[in-house]
């Protein structure tokens, strides 16, 4: 089932980051379908979160899409080379977002391997936000796509609930990665990860 707008419009971005675990992230790029089970996420709590691109109400050409209504894709270029895919949450003008840090490949694995220049799926294939975007064919030009639609011209990104149940014993929460500049906010347990060996 395609996740409805109401899933993304909820006010608790941390809960949404946890709830996205086990959901299927699907792309259709140039007619090619690929998908993976979301197994790692990070929450970013907008204007009050020093780790967020929108901290203090900051608005730039890159981050403006964070102020869109929940269910919008926020994809940005990191280090000039990696596209990173985020899910915008909450109401319009409340810039919450969830970074998708890892997936377990499901559909279109051959296409994913070609995109990554790999011969076979390794243990860490799909782990890391740059890898997620690369193997799913997501580019920073896809920022602003509506995640509640399966048809967005030549590029589509959406998330489905295929009834993968994640209980508390199957996940870990921890501080986010690479946000040391955020001071005390860097220690917040806003990163969620499936203990994959327990499930898949």
List the helices and strands and how they pair.
Blueprint: H1 5-8, H2 13-19, E1 24-29, E2 32-44, E3 73-78, E4 82-89, E5 96-107, H3 109-116, H4 129-136, E6 155-160, E7 171-174, E8 191-194
Antiparallel strand pairs: 1-2, 1-6, 2-5, 2-8, 3-4, 4-5, 7-8
Helix pairs in contact: 3-4
SS content category: alpha+beta
Write down how many β-strands occur, each being a DSSP E stretch of 2 or more residues.
Answer: 8
Q: On the 0-100 scale, what is the average pLDDT? A: 94
Largest β sheet strand count, sense and barrel closure: 8 strands, antiparallel
What is the name of the CATH architecture? Answer: Roll
Overall tally of structural domains: 1
User: What's the CATH first level?
Assistant: Alpha Beta
- The Cα radius of gyration reads 16 Å
The percent range for helix content is 10-25%
| Low-pLDDT residue spans | none
The CA-CA distance between the termini, in Å, is 21 Å
User: Would you identify the CATH H-level superfamily?
Assistant: Methylpurine-DNA glycosylase (MPG)
Order of helices and strands: HHEEEEEHHEEE
Query: Globular, elongated, flat, extended or rod-shaped: what is the shape?
Result: globular
Quick rundown:
The chain is 14% helix and 30% strand. With 200 residues, it is an alpha+beta fold. Strands 1, 2, 3, 4, 5, 6, 7 and 8 form an eight-stranded antiparallel beta sheet that branches.
């Amino acid at each position: 089932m395609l996740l409805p707008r109401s899933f993304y419009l909820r006010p608790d971005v941390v809960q949404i980051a946890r709830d996205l675990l086990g959901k299927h992230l699907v792309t259709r790029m140039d007619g090619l379908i690929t998908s993976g089970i979301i197994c790692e996420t990070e929450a970013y709590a907008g204007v009050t979160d020093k780790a967020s691109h929108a901290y203090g109400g900051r608005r730039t050409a890159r981050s403006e899409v964070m102020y869109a209504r929940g269910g919008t894709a926020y994809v940005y270029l990191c280090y000039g080379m990696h596209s990173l895919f985020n899910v915008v949450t909450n109401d319009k003008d409340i810039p919450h977002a969830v970074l998708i840090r890892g997936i377990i490949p499901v559909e279109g694995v051959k296409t994913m391997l070609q995109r990554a220049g790999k011969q076979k799926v390794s243990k860490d294939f799909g782990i890391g936000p740059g890898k997620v975007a690369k193997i799913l064919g997501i580019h920073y030009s896809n920022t602003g796509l509506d995640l509640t639609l399966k048809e967005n011209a030549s590029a589509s990104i959406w998330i489905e609930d295929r009834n993968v149940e994640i209980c508390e014993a199957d996940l870990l929460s921890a501080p986010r990665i690479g946000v040391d500049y955020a001071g005390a906010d860097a220690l917040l347990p806003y990163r969620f990860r499936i203990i994959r060996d327990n499930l898949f």
